[in-house]
Inverse folding.
């Protein structure tokens, strides 16, 4: 069973201030937990059903040096402390990684998120970045917390391979010599762009208000996804996928 001590800790990790204080977050569900076990990240505690423990003995043995506590529990307990409506597998308490500072000298593609509020959108964007081999995402300080349980769930394990950096965006973009592309309703057709060179920054704005004026003044390539129907706008995660697909295809 999950002790009172661990129950209180896991429930506290639903909130950003406690995640920041403890420097820990949690991961739920069979697939995501298995990815964490294989990652080598430090896992202070793993709570799992008997069925999971029996079926995943090889994964547990391979991760024995990174997992400090393994405790059997019921599916009901996992649901009680987590956020999933059903979880018959496992929940892992994980230490936050200490990523190195972002280097603006990188010539790779980098996503830039200007006040993306919705955790589901952020999780989807992390997954999209992972799909396209983008390993760094820059986030404004008011963007959703990347260790929010909803973000972790939506990212589907991609949070293990993409580093997120929270910093003042305008300040960083002031110093870069790399091209800065910004997603707008009006701009150059992303299907017809001609890239001077591969790599640069791809800026996506707030779901309701778009890219802020402070960040927008540093964008030197306004781009848009052309519409062929009557929809008013695209979800920011969907827009991220289309833009990444086109820019990375053109830079091959």
């Amino acid at each position: 069973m999950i002790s009172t001590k661990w129950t209180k800790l896991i429930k506290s990790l639903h909130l950003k201030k406690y995640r920041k204080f403890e420097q820990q977050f949690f991961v739920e569900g069979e697939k995501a937990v298995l990815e964490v076990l294989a990652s080598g990240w430090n896992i202070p505690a793993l709570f799992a059903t008997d069925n999971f423990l029996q079926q995943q003995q090889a994964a547990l043995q391979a991760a024995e040096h990174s997992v400090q506590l393994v405790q059997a529990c019921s599916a009901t307990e996992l649901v009680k402390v987590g956020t999933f409506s059903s979880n018959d597998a496992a929940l892992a308490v994980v230490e936050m990684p200490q990523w190195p500072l972002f280097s603006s000298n990188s010539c790779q593609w980098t996503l830039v998120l200007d006040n993306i509020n919705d955790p589901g959108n952020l999780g989807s964007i992390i997954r999209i970045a992972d799909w396209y081999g983008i390993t760094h995402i820059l986030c404004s300080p008011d963007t959703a917390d990347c260790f929010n349980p909803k973000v972790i769930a939506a990212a589907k394990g991609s949070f293990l391979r993409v580093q997120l950096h929270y910093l003042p965006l305008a300040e960083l973009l002031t110093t870069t010599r790399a091209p800065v592309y910004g997603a707008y309703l009006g701009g150059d057709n992303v299907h017809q762009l001609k890239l001077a060179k591969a790599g640069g920054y791809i800026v996506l704005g707030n779901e309701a208000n778009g890219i802020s004026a402070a960040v927008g003044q540093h964008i030197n390539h306004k781009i848009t996804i052309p519409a062929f129907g009557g929809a008013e706008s695209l979800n920011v995660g969907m827009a991220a996928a289309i833009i990444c697909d086109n820019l990375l295809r053109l830079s091959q």
User: Anything to note?
Assistant: The mean pLDDT is 95.
